[in-house]
Write a structure and sequence with these properties.
Shape: elongated
Number of helices: 25
Radius of gyration: 36 Å
Number of strands: 57
Helix content: 10-25%
Structural class: alpha+beta
Distance between the termini: 103 Å
Length: 1272
């Protein structure tokens, strides 16, 4: 090494004027020798008095006031003075949206200039670093983009950049995770290291600024592991930079020792750095002041600190030193934040992955640290933080922090923390190379003062996803100057300067002429899912059917030893539904077609007789589609019959699922599940023959299954669902423009009675699938065109709009509308219904201490429903919530099985209502409402108290017979419920509460013309729930300048913006601006993408309840009670809760259906006018579907109902124990029809006078027993 004292040095005295830098437009490279343009430091000399360290000297979040708290999936932060004006600028790397460049204007004010500067990279940016790669004195910019071209932006010296990626040959398309730069071969040019995950990381050697050469293999730095972070630093004090690389996935980290000849040797084990974990970031500093660089590694497990033993070997001391952070730790940086001359450490965590806040460790000396961030929200920053960088952003002499946070409606976005320190002095040095690389990356600086020694290095890229300022900073405590500074430059030259005053920026010239992303499996249902992965690398692996990810059997999983083949494949179908898009209509159809296919396969192998069950599609023509079938060879015995049925069912459902779920977002999971299920059953998935007349009973049964699948697939391609067009709408169009949920009010609801699409910041459906369209289209408004099961043309009304026909089944008539020109208050059913939704959202807070008894003894009803809006006003309790007592009073007196009263279950209303909304939303596992009721049916079938007797009478059916008939009945009901409900949605196209409430809030209040903001179409004022904002309200309501005074406020759920971390936060209830009302739903979903009237949940649920009641012959769950437990503080998804374990309980199936309907009101999805008409329709649909399924299964009913052993109660068609209005409605639906299967005719059970026709005689027969109970 050469020691020189000819270093050029210049001091810049304090000056805050930007005019000081007026000459910056001249290119630095145009000057031949010394420093003509220096950085600026605005701290007045001696401004800080000598003071002791104080706990109050921490940080504050100034992101909002600085104008940089932008939302987006931020991952990278780089600090550097790109325009050489003396202020440190910030570049923000963001996934899947344009990156941002914030030009520092001074005084913590920033201007976003990425587009103007030409660096608005829209790639999947994982890392970004500043560096002067062509040694022209201006910082260039490099972006690492995952599976997209990396970007190299060359600084033009005038505030703009040119994209030189292709010209320099550096735009590889690897899975980049981080970027780091150093002059590893000491040729004076900054080289670039690109860390790729599960792919070769790349060492790019700089060819004198003209291009780059891939020197990965020649340099000996080959790595194909799960590379994450990296750092160039001099670990062995030999004057060249070594390379340390961190690995995730429990892989061993790598340490490449620089051999000094352009090559490296891997020596991690040799030096004690063969650390194994889920590592991310890494940074180095000399924390014990011995002149050797120590190393800190962030980890998913406790992070680790390695102390350099003074010979280039390392010893782990993280726990002993108190810096073993246990969070999902990403970025980190060493720096002296309080200028006490001890190095401090700040680490940032993904708080959503693991609820550990960010941590600031204050160095105490002697290798000890203390946490100083506890109780400081801005520092703890409990969000999804990734990369971080430090630098003096406000020019006050201490170091500020920039954090890349995934900004959203519930997270703060990019964050800058201003250092508030007022203690100690500091020295500031900017190095510039002449022989070495221009930024002096890799230089070692040693400062001497007060008999102390401090050492630092200049690094380009540190921690994880961070690139900090290149300025060197030494805290001096009470000391006011440096005795001397020794600099070992990257090319080996050593220079010395001093003394140097504290609180001054020195620019010293050499004598002589990233964000951390994780790539991996992004599917949360996969065995190797990694929460931090943002780009899928096709590595997802899935468990085989019936196994956990570790290969052990799932105890409760259905097998042929415990369940029927029908149950096995119904569970497989539910798995498929849970892993597809959340589309209730389409999955009701899938459930129906698979159930009907299984039924047809079961029928095909029934013993021939006059009472043999009649198939549905097989051997028949349905809606013009023919499925020919002349029979199949009769099995030799019952065992062969069972095997044939199992084979045909398995091949049929397997093929149908392969077709129906081919485009599912998690089709790989579904394929693994059903493929492995076939293998476990001993079936060959390669067998595709449809010839079931070969004489080989094994092959023929399998071929019949394939034949059935082929016909159900073809039938589905012409059944009016537009499956061939991926179920796209062909004539429906919405009338309103989008409601932008992040904006207040609703200026785009031009037709306040009609449905309005939503525009979200991000759309994720109820099954957890991220949609490509943030404004999803209406689902299935043309579903009235689909071929039903039990419904027929006599059940329809046909309307026309804009030249297109809309077929409506079981038309309930129009919902209540609003006339925007009419002055009307709560007497408007439109306003009453939608406002009730808002009032009920005030129940979603357990802190209100309201307690309800939700046991069947207090909360159960008898299925009573209002018939119109007038009755609805008495049925739904407007302010307190819930419904009024049924015709038999509140609850059920006793459990009919035990003959004991139901035990009370007092719970907090705020817990119950939230659990109810979540449980019924789409099922606990997102199987959508029709799938949820199949799940409940399976629950019923597993209860030991269940007697498998059809209608509760006659012989006990086998597991297979029972399941086949149950699925056939329920499947038909769910399919018809979907068609009927969505036919109403398509035609009436009714508005959702979020649109209506925000629109009415825009209009004003309609209660008092003498009060401000009066409009007849506005919201009625309701004391305690709806009021005007006043100047006495909090600033959050009235605004900083009282700009929201006289607007409407609602007492309601406070919305997703009040939730930072869903696992620990609750939004609670309070006064909010009505224009910003949110339903109780995820912010990425908000409300289903289809019209409201009628409620699909209500229709599905009541229809299912009727089927289960009729099928079992008992309105009560087996044992008199059905239950579901929601565990405390874990069941709710988008906020914390419930506060205690809650067991949902239902005595009857209708009780469960009632709760399902009410849940949608508390969920903010439906008003009452959507609910009770849907339940009324479901009553008829469920009974009708059951009776038709029964006629198929028991042809003897066509002649004599004694085929059931006992006839049903005369006139009690829905088996509710009474002859009443709902029986009359069912009779009227079939009035004028003949009995029989032809044309979905009426059941002979409705033909009370047995004349083959539903007519006046049957009506008179029903009236003779009207009001009399049955003897059940």
């Amino acid at each position: 090494m050469v020691l020189s004292d000819h270093t050029l040095l210049k001091v810049v005295q304090p000056n805050k004027s930007r005019n000081f830098m007026a000459s910056k437009s001249m290119r630095f490279s145009s000057f031949p020798n010394a420093i003509y343009q220096l950085g600026m430091f605005s701290l007045v000399l001696g401004l800080f008095p000598c003071a002791a360290w104080s706990q109050e000297s921490l940080f504050q979040d100034i992101s909002q006031t600085a104008g940089i708290d932008l939302e987006g999936l931020h991952h990278a932060a780089a600090i550097g003075d790109y325009d050489r004006d003396g202020f440190q600028d910030i570049y923000v790397g963001t996934k899947n949206s344009a990156n941002k460049l914030f030009r520092n204007l001074g005084n913590m004010e920033f201007q976003e200039v990425a587009v103007a500067a030409g660096v608005d990279d829209s790639g999947n940016t994982q890392a970004t670093i500043w560096g002067d790669f062509n040694n022209d004195g201006y910082l260039d910019l490099v972006n690492g983009n995952y599976l997209q071209s990396n970007r190299f932006y060359q600084n033009n010296g005038d505030g703009t950049f040119s994209d030189m990626t292709t010209a320099l040959g550096i735009g590889n398309l690897g899975p980049c995770r981080s970027l780091h730069a150093a002059d590893y071969d000491q040729d004076g040019w900054l080289d670039l290291y690109v860390v790729n995950i599960n792919s070769h990381s790349v060492m790019w050697r700089n060819l004198n600024g003209t291009g780059f050469q891939n020197s990965t293999f020649p340099s000996g730095t080959v790595d194909v592991g799960i590379g994450m972070g990296s750092l160039f630093f001099d670990a062995d004090n030999d004057g060249d930079v070594d390379l340390y690389l961190t690995h995730d996935g429990n892989q061993v980290n790598r340490y490449y020792r620089n051999d000094g000849d352009g090559t490296f040797t891997e020596a991690a084990a040799e030096v004690g750095l063969d650390y194994q974990g889920n590592c991310m970031g890494v940074d180095a500093a000399d924390i014990n002041h011995d002149g050797w660089m120590d190393l800190y590694i962030t980890d998913l497990y406790p992070s680790e600190l390695f102390i350099n033993d003074g010979d280039g070997t390392f010893t782990a001391i993280g726990e002993a030193s108190g810096v073993d952070d246990s969070g999902m730790t990403w970025g980190c940086a060493w720096f002296d934040y309080d200028n006490d001359s001890e190095t401090d450490l700040y680490v940032v965590n993904d708080y959503v992955f693991a609820p550990y806040p960010n941590v600031l460790y204050r160095g105490l000396g002697d290798l000890q640290f203390e946490i100083t961030s506890s109780g400081t929200p801005d520092l703890e920053h409990p969000f999804q933080d990734y990369g971080m960088a430090q630098g003096d952003l406000d020019g006050d002499g201490d170091l500020d922090v920039a954090i890349a946070t995934s900004g959203s409606s519930v997270q703060p976005g990019f964050t800058v923390l201003e250092n508030l320190n007022t203690t100690g002095h500091a020295a500031h040095i900017r190095l510039e190379g002449t022989v070495s690389n221009r930024d002096a990356i890799g230089a070692r600086v040693t400062a001497y003062f007060d008999d102390q020694v401090r050492t630092d290095e200049v690094h380009c890229g540190q921690g994880y996803s961070g690139s900090s300022s290149f300025q060197v900073h030494f805290g001096l405590g009470e000391y006011t100057f440096l005795d001397s500074v020794v600099i070992r430059w990257p090319n080996g030259i050593v220079s010395q300067q001093g003394p140097l005053n504290a609180d001054t920026l020195y620019h010293i010239l050499e004598p002589g002429a990233a964000p951390w992303f994780f790539t991996g499996c992004t599917d949360s249902h996969a065995c190797n899912y990694q929460l931090s992965a943002v780009v899928d690398d096709a590595s997802c692996s899935y468990p085989e059917a019936g196994l956990n990810c570790n290969g052990t059997p799932i105890v409760s999983f259905p097998t042929l030893e415990t369940h029927s083949i029908a149950r096995v494949w119904n569970e497989a179908l539910l798995t498929g539904i849970r892993n597809d898009w959340a589309r209730p209509t389409i999955h009701a159809r899938n459930l129906w077609h698979t159930s009907a296919l299984m039924y047809d396969a079961w029928c095909a192998f029934s013993e021939p007789s006059m009472i043999s069950p009649k198939p549905w599609l097989l051997g028949d023509t349905i809606d013009g589609y023919a499925c020919p079938f002349d029979g199949i060879a009769e099995p030799l015995n019952d065992e062969a019959r069972l095997q044939a049925r199992e084979s045909a069912i398995s091949y049929g459902v397997y093929r149908l699922m392969k077709h129906r779920f081919a485009q599912a977002p998690r089709s790989h999971l579904i394929d693994v599940h059903i493929d492995s299920r076939m293998v476990s059953l001993g079936y060959d998935t390669a067998f595709v023959s449809t010839d079931f007349d070969t004489g080989d009973p094994v092959l023929d049964a399998a071929a019949l299954g394939n034949y059935l699948a082929e016909h159900y697939i073809n039938f589905g391609l012409q059944d009016g669902s537009n499956e061939e067009l991926n179920y796209q709408n062909t004539y429906y169009n919405p009338m309103n423009w989008n409601l932008v949920m992040d904006d207040p009010g609703n200026p785009n609801l031009f037709f306040p009675n009609r449905w309005q699409p939503l525009q979200l910041a991000e759309f994720i459906d109820q099954s957890g699938n991220e949609g490509s369209n943030i404004s999803p289209e209406s689902l299935s408004p043309e579903w009235g065109d689909v071929t039903p099961f039990a419904m027929n043309p006599s059940d329809t009304s046909v309307y026309q709009r804009l030249g297109s026909d809309y077929t409506v089944y079981h038309d309930p008539g129009p919902p209540p509308f609003i006339d925007s020109n009419e002055e009307i208050q709560l007497e408007s059913d439109y306003k009453w219904g939608h406002l009730l939704v808002s009032l009920w959202s005030s129940h979603l807070d357990p802190s209100d201490s309201v307690v309800w008894d939700i046991s069947p003894g207090a909360f159960g009803r008898d299925g009573f429903l209002p018939l119109n809006m007038e009755e609805a006003r008495s049925y739904y309790v407007f302010e307190e919530g819930g419904i009024t007592e049924g015709s038999n009073g509140f609850g059920h007196a006793v459990n009919p099985t035990t003959q004991e009263p139901y035990a009370p279950q007092p719970v907090l209303r705020g817990d119950f209502t939230r659990v109810l909304a979540e449980f019924w939303a789409d099922g606990p596992e997102s199987e959508t409402p029709p799938g949820h009721w199949f799940d409940l049916l399976n629950y019923v079938n597993d209860q030991p108290e269940l007697e498998r007797k059809w209608r509760g009478t006659g012989a006990t059916l086998s597991l297979l017979d029972w399941d086949i008939l149950a699925y056939f009945s329920l499947g038909g009901a769910m399919h018809d419920a979907a068609i009927a409900a969505w036919s109403c949605k398509g035609w009436y196209d009714y508005v959702r509460p979020v649109s209506a409430l925000r629109w009415m809030a825009d209009q004003g209040q309609c209660s008092d013309p003498e009060l401000p903001h009066y409009n007849g179409a506005g919201l009625p004022l309701v004391p305690g729930y709806v009021a005007l904002i006043t100047a006495e309200d909090s600033v959050d309501l009235r605004g900083e300048n009282n700009e929201f005074v006289d607007d409407i406020k609602l007492k309601a759920w406070r919305g997703p913006s009040a939730i930072d971390v869903p696992t620990i936060d609750q939004a609670g209830v309070g006064w909010i601006r009505a224009k910003e009302w949110w339903p109780y739903q995820r912010p990425t979903f908000v409300t289903p993408p289809f019209a409201g009237y009628v409620s699909g949940h209500s229709t599905f649920s009541r229809a299912a309840a009727e089927v289960l009641t009729l099928m079992t012959g008992d309105p009560f769950f087996p044992g008199g009670i059905g239950t579901f437990t929601a565990e405390a503080n874990s069941f709710l998804v988008f906020e914390d809760g419930p506060s205690h374990d809650i067991e949902l309980q239902w005595a009857t199936y209708r009780d469960a259906a009632d709760q399902s309907g009410l849940s949608r009101i508390w969920g903010g999805i439906h008003p009452p006018q959507d609910d009770f008409p849907g339940r009324m329709m479901g009553e008829v649909i469920g009974v009708d579907a059951f009776l038709l399924a029964e006629m198929h299964a028991f042809p003897l009913l066509l002649a004599d109902c004694t085929g059931l052993s006992d006839c049903p109660c005369f006139g009690d068609f829905n088996a509710d124990g009474a002859r009443n209005l709902f029986d009359l409605l069912i009779l009227l639906v079939h009035y004028g029809q003949t009995t029989g299967l032809e044309g979905n005719g009426a059941s002979p059970i409705i033909d009370l006078d047995s004349d083959g026709m539903i007519d006046t005689g049957d009506l008179l027969g029903l009236l003779t027993v009207w009001g009399f109970p049955c003897t059940l």
